[in-house]
Amino acid sequence: MKRATSRKDSTNSRRQIYRSREGRGLAKIRSFASGQQNPMCVYGYARVSTSSQELDIQLAQLDAAGCERVFCEKESGTKDNRRVLSQLLRRLRPGDVVIVSAHDRLTRGGPFKMLSILAEITSRGAAYKSLAEPWADTTHELGEVLAALVGYIARKTREDIIRRTSAGRERARQNGVRFGRKPKLTMAQREAALARRRAGENQKAIAQAFNVISRLKSTSSNA
Fold first, then answer.
1. Quick one: pLDDT at residue 98?
2. Where are the active-site residues found (predicted)?
């Protein structure tokens, strides 16, 4: 019991420290929504992989920053599809704010993944703020400029990735690399199956003989 009390006191102490640090930041967040038609909600997002103690620290920071609701998740930051993060993003409305304790809590998937998430937040009319990175704050005067820049960089990065991927696939195709699933039949088996089909054997029987779905086609069926 004494240990639990000590941990609770420690958490409360951290919250008091963070509140004093985040006072002016919270005022800026509130002013961000002053021109919005819908009531603003300040959301927090906390993520850990294993350590519950680290989660306590994040919760203390987010509470001090004025978060009204915190979405917590225990997942790897490199995982693309995170259920709780997806729920948060779907909930966002114009004027809302998403706060994280640090960028790497949002994702560890690299710059493109980070930019993609930020672009989705700003595209919904919401703002973003990282407590550990003061520059990552779209609630201040230059927030619209930063949001537009994030969206542009994310779009250009995605276009570059698609272009490089397409070029790589084309080079591989020219070098004889085949994409897609491996054929179930070898060339010899395919020719044998087609020969049996041309001889008049039932297509379903041929498919059962070769243990494949009966979708055999021959470009020379009219020959």
1. 95
2. 49
CB 107 within 8 A of CB 154: no
Query: Rounded distance, CA 169 to CA 100, Å?
Result: 38
Cβ atoms within 10 Å, residue 97: 28
3-state secondary structure at position 98: strand
Average pLDDT per 10 consecutive residues for the chain, totaling 223 residues = 46 49 52 55 90 80 92 85 92 93 84 83 89 82 67 71 79 74 78 86 82 57 44
Q: How large is the C-alpha radius of gyration of the chain?
A: 28
pTM: 0.55
User: Is the separation of the CB atoms in 129 and 25 below 8 Å?
Assistant: yes
Backbone phi, then psi, for 48, in 5-degree steps? -135, 160
DSSP, residue by residue, 131-166: SS-TT-BTTSTTHHHHHHHHHHHHHHHHHHHHHHHH
The answer to whether 123 touches 154, Cβ cutoff 8 Å, is: no
Q: Which residues are catalytic?
A: 49
**pLDDT for the residue numbered 61:** 92
Tokens of 61: 């920071």
pLDDT of residue 87: 94
Rounded Cα distance, 87 and 123, in Å: 16
**Quick check: 38 and 93 in contact, CB under 8 A?**
yes
The 3-state DSSP class for residue 69 equals strand
Kindly list the strands in the beta sheet with 42-48, ordered across the sheet, starting from the edge strand earlier in the chain. Answer: 69-74, 42-48, 97-100, 127-130
Crossing angle between the packed helical segments 2-32 and 52-64, to the nearest 10 degrees: 40
